[in-house]
Amino acid sequence: MSPRVEAGTTLPALALPPVSRTTLALFAGASGDTNPIHVDLDVARSAGLDDVFAHGMLSMAYLGRLLTGWVPGSRLRSWRVRFTAITPVLSSPRCEGVVTAVDDGVATVELSVRLEDGTTTLRGTALVALP
Amino acid sequence: MAVDLARALARPIEPVVALVERGRLRAFARAIGDTDPVHSDVEAARAAGHPDVLAPPTFLFSLELETDPPLGWLTDLGVDLRGVLHGEQSFTYHRDVHAGDTIECRRRVSNAYAKSPTRDFLVKHTDFLRGGELVAEAEAVVIVTAP
């Protein structure tokens, strides 16, 4: 982490490779979110979708990586995200964060995840304790 | 209405008690492409000042799913999982959680409301306790759509 954190400080962005079906299967098993709509094409089609889509919590986990790549995880006080669009299989999320305020040693970080077509899939805010 | 809101608010949810396992943390880290060894290697975690492998920030959500069926709190309400969307998720941390910890997840539907005849919102609050101490909290906003 850079020595001085202030409003406007940007976190190093995290660009993910395309979300593969293998990633969705591994995440379903490891996370315990076994909703078949994320891994079973037949179930996705029965719900009227063309294909499976990624777990929202996979994208939030990527945002977690953005944060813990910036500061040790123990400094994360709280955070909240809103899922604004689904992440289609094979799309490539990009996680970004920018500090919008620093008060009493706690940074407010605005978070977003976007896909290559510009769709924003997550927006959120984190409170991070500074050293 | 996609779900019985009064029933969702009144119906208790069984708590989940789950052990945080090193292997599970390693598999989780691999699935999300996290190569920070503090989440997968005991020695690296100890070198960073932790007693054991550190759970990543969203892993607590997975502990709640350590029950059968994992989304039983929804399916018990008659919810068709194909119509469920995850609207919002938050975490508040009070203590780090590590491999070897046994965590009790105490859950309740804290709010339930309809936004349209075919879209209901359920807010689930979870307290995560270790030996009776509150270590973290989470809130999930789940959108249930009628077919």
UniProtKB/TrEMBL annotation, chain A:
Lineage of the species this protein comes from: Bacteria, Bacillati, Actinomycetota, Actinomycetes, Pseudonocardiales
Protein name (database record)? MaoC/PaaZ C-terminal domain-containing protein
Provide the family line. Answer: Belongs to the enoyl-CoA hydratase/isomerase family.
Annotated InterPro entries: HotDog_dom_sf, MaoC-like_dom
Q: Where is the MaoC-like domain?
A: 18-105
Q: Please name the PANTHER family in this protein's record.
A: (3R)-HYDROXYACYL-ACP DEHYDRATASE SUBUNIT HADB (PTHR43841:SF3), 3-HYDROXYACYL-THIOESTER DEHYDRATASE HTDX-RELATED (PTHR43841)
Source domain of life is Bacteria
Species this protein is from: Umezawaea endophytica
Automatic annotation (TrEMBL), chain B:
Say which domain of life the source belongs to. Bacteria
Annotated SUPFAM superfamilies: Thioesterase/thiol ester dehydrase-isomerase (SSF54637)
The residues covered by the FAS1-like dehydratase domain are 11-137
According to UniProt, the name of this protein is MaoC family dehydratase N-terminal domain-containing protein
Task: Name the species this protein comes from.
Answer: Umezawaea endophytica
